[in-house]
Amino acid sequence: MIKAIVAGAAGRMGGRIIHMLEGAQDIVLAAAFEKAGHPAVGRDVSEVVGLPKKNIKIAGSLKEVLNAGDVLIDFTHPEISLDHLKQAAPAGKAVVIGTTGFAAAQIDEIKKLASNTRVVLAPNMSVGVNLMFKVVADIARILSSGYDVEIVEAHHRLKKDAPSGTAIKLAQVIAESLQRNLDDVAVYKRHGMIGQRTDAEIGIQTVRAGDIVGEHTVMFGGIGERLEIIHRAHNRDNFARGAVRAAQWLVSQPQGLYDMQDVLGLK
């Protein structure tokens, strides 16, 4: 039986991951933790997330529970997730990271740390979104030039990073299919007299409002027609379910850095 440790247990994603672990095959919740001083620390996890009593108290740090599990599932913040990985990698613990907003230098550090353990790093763990990555790459390759590419993402008003990691990943796979350098062609905002759109640019626009869980639209605009691929998340359970699936897959893999395309066999 795989033993899972959940970071940010009292948060929106942590709580849903714990729920998805209930009834999952071959994996159980072994430990959960929050940051030191959080009001949930010391309470039974069941009281915090609304499950039958489990006799698992929420710890105040990863260090307290690191030896209790085989795999850490982490949806927190870039600096915190990286710190957790630095603790987990030397101990040989597998780590599933769904945190977004990492800087390029942080991604490089994750890659180095992954050489000592097994890591799944994915901006979105929804099965539908990961299929979307593959589909838009194929569409871009087939349509090639002659179609303008625009990506619009919408999330809740509390989301701290923009654009979303999913939107950036969509732009990256499309740019790769079109043999373009995303750093050269990405357009993240438009305002004022900006002039005519270039043929090569890939627009990535952001909406933040209310309690939107997550919406991503990729538009391929041609002359006389427009093709749109849309994914809408109705709740966080699809992300949490994907994270549990990633954890089940990851523990038996060789050391290295993976993503959900690896988990789902889409490569």
Considering the chains and any ligands shown, give keywords for the structure.
Dihydrodipicolinate Reductase, domain 2; elongated; 11 strands; Rossmann fold; alpha/beta; 6-stranded parallel beta sheet; 5-stranded mixed beta sheet; 267 residues; 2 domains
What does this structure look like?
With 267 residues, this protein is of the alpha/beta class. The chain has 2 domains: 2-121 and 236-263, Rossmann fold (3-Layer(aba) Sandwich), CATH 3.40.50; 127-233, Dihydrodipicolinate Reductase, domain 2 (2-Layer Sandwich). It contains 9 helices and 11 strands. The protein has helices at 12-21, 45-49, 78-88, 104-114, 127-143, 165-177, 182-185, 237-250, 260-263, and strands at residues 2-7, 27-33, 71-74, 94-97, 118-121, 148-155, 186-187, 202-208, 214-221, 226-233, 256-258. The strands form 2 sheets. The protein has a 6-stranded parallel beta sheet with strand order 2-1-3-4-5-11, sandwiched between helices. Strands 7-8-6-9-10 form a 5-stranded mixed beta sheet. Strand 1, helix 1 (12-21) and strand 2 (27-33) form a beta-alpha-beta unit. Helix 3 (78-88) runs parallel beside helix 4 and helix 5 (127-143) runs parallel beside helix 6. The radius of gyration is 20 Å and the shape is elongated.
